[in-house]
Specification:
Elements (H helix, E strand, L loop, with lengths): L1 H17 L3 H12 L4 H8 L5 H40 L18 H15 L3 E2 L5 E3 H4 L10 H5 L14 E3 L5 H9 L4 E10 L10 E11 L4 H16 L6 E8 L2 E12 L6 E2 L4 E11 L1 H6 L8 E8 H9 L12 H7 L16
Parallel strand pairs: 1-4
Antiparallel strand pairs: 2-3, 4-5, 5-10, 6-7, 7-8, 7-9, 9-10
The protein binds 3,4-dihydroxyphenylalanine.
Length: about 350
C-alpha cells in the first residue's frame, strides 16, 4: 500500500511538472482527485481496511492528496503568470514612438467656412435647417413673392428640369431661400435657423460657377426688427473676419421676399490693388438681407400681423475668398491637389468661437 502511495506520488508529480497547459493540468487533477480519481479511490478504500492500519494509511493518503493539490496549484499559477506575460508582451506599445505623420487629407475651404459660419451662429442660438437641391417653382419662387413672369425670376439663370408627371415645374434651387419657406411651413415660431447648402445658376466666369454655396439666415418671432438684423450680422462679420470693431453699412436694395431690403457692406481697403478687411474707409458688399415680406409669411400660413422677422443670404465661396485670399472662384471646384493642399485645413481642428476659428 505504501508502495502504491509512493508510486502515485512519483507519477503525479512528474506528470504535473510535465503538463503542457492548463487543460492538461485539469485532466490530471480529475484523474487523481476527481470522483473516480486514484487518490479518491484510496480514501474510499479506507473503510475496508483493518482498524490498526487505517489511521496511518489515511494520514499518508491525506499527505499525498495535499502534496498533489499543492503541485497542481503551483503549476496553475505559473501557467496564468506566463499567459499574462505573453499578453502584456503582445499588447505592449512603444510610448516613445513619434506621433503619426500629419494626415494627408485636408478639409476643403468650403467645408471649413461652413463650419466657421455654423460655429458663430450656433453660439448665438441658431439651429441648422436644410432642404432639397431639386426644388419646385412654388418654394424657389412663388412663395418667396416672385410673381409669375416677374423679371427677378429670369435674373436667376435657372436650370429647369424636364416637367414632372405631377404638373409641377422642377428646377435646381437658385438660392437657399426656399428653405425659409420649408422651415416656416413646418416649424412653429420662434424660428432661428441658418441654412447652408448648394445652389445652382447657369453662369460661369471668374466670379460665377454653375454650382456654388450659400448660407441663409432666418429669424421669425413677434418682436424681431431691423436693429436685431443689424446687430446679428455685424457680430457675425466681426467674429468671422476677426476684426473686433469692423464697421458695417446698409444700403437700400430690392429682393422680392424682403421689405425693406438691404445690402450690407463691410469696411475694407483696396490700396495698391490688395484687398484688406477693416475700417480703412472703402466698402465691400458682403450679403443681402431684409425684413421678411408679409406676402412670404402669408404664403407659409403665418399671420403677418403677429409674426415678423429677418432673413439674409450670402455666398460661402465669396466670404471664403475674402478671408483666405483665394482669387478665382473656379479653382474651388477643379480638384487640383496642389490647390487643396495649399488652401485646405487640418481635418481635426474643429472651429469654435472660443477655441479659434482657423488654425
Ligand atoms: N436669395 C438671395 C440671392 O440668392 C440672397 C438673399 C438676399 C437672401 C436677401 C435673403 C435675403 O434671405 O434677405 O441672391
Amino acid at each position: 500500500m505504501t508502495e502504491t502511495i509512493d508510486s502515485i506520488r512519483t507519477e503525479m508529480l512528474a506528470a504535473v511538472s510535465g503538463a503542457a497547459d492548463a487543460g492538461a493540468l485539469e485532466a490530471l487533477r480529475v484523474s487523481a482527485l476527481g470522483k473516480s480519481g486514484r487518490i479518491t479511490a484510496l480514501l474510499k478504500n479506507l473503510g475496508t481496511m483493518p482498524v490498526e492500519e487505517r489511521k496511518g494509511f489515511g494520514q499518508q493518503v491525506n499527505v499525498l492528496k495535499d502534496e498533489v493539490t499543492a503541485a497542481i496549484d503551483a503549476r496553475k499559477t505559473a501557467f496564468a503568470g506566463a499567459a499574462l506575460n505573453a499578453r502584456l508582451a503582445s499588447e505592449s506599445m512603444d510610448v516613445s514612438l513619434p506621433i503619426r505623420p500629419e494626415a494627408k487629407g485636408t478639409l476643403h475651404p468650403i467645408s471649413q467656412t461652413m463650419d466657421e459660419v455654423a460655429a458663430i451662429f450656433g453660439q448665438m442660438g441658431f439651429e441648422i435647417a436644410d432642404g432639397p437641391d431639386v426644388e419646385d417653382d412654388f418654394h424657389n419662387f412663388t412663395a418667396l413673392n416672385f410673381p409669375p413672369g416677374h423679371p427677378a425670376r429670369e435674373m436667376h439663370d435657372t436650370f429647369f428640369l424636364p416637367p414632372g408627371d405631377d404638373g409641377n415645374r422642377y428646377l435646381l434651387r437658385t438660392h437657399t431661400s426656399p428653405v425659409q419657406i420649408r422651415t416656416m411651413m413646418s416649424v412653429k415660431p420662434p424660428i432661428r435657423v441658418i441654412i447652408p447648402g448648394r445652389t445652382y445658376r447657369c453662369d460661369y466666369d471668374m466670379t460665377h460657377t454653375p454650382m456654388f454655396h450659400q448660407v441663409e439666415l432666418l429669424v421669425i418671432d413677434t418682436e424681431t426688427n431691423m436693429s436685431h438684423l443689424r446687430g446679428c450680422l455685424q457680430e457675425f462679420v466681426r467674429t468671422y473676419f476677426g476684426v473686433d470693431d469692423l464697421t458695417t453699412r446698409f444700403r437700400p436694395s430690392f429682393f422680392p421676399f424682403t421689405e425693406p431690403s438691404a445690402e450690407m457692406d463691410i469696411g475694407c481697403s483696396r490700396k495698391g490693388g490688395e484687398l484688406k478687411i477693416g475700417n480703412y474707409g472703402d466698402w465691400l458688399e458682403i450679403l443681402g438681407c431684409g425684413m421678411v415680406h408679409p406676402n412670404v409669411l402669408k404664403a407659409c400660413g403665418l399671420d403677418p400681423e403677429v409674426y415678423q422677422g429677418f432673413a439674409a443670404g450670402m455666398g460661402i465661396e465669396r466670404i471664403a475668398m475674402l478671408k483666405y485670399g483665394i482669387p478665382d472662384l473656379r479653382t474651388f471646384f477643379e480638384s487640383d491637389l496642389r490647390w487643396l493642399r495649399h488652401y485646405g485645413f487640418a481635418s481635426l481642428d474643429v472651429p469654435t468661437v472660443t477655441g479659434g476659428l482657423t488654425r
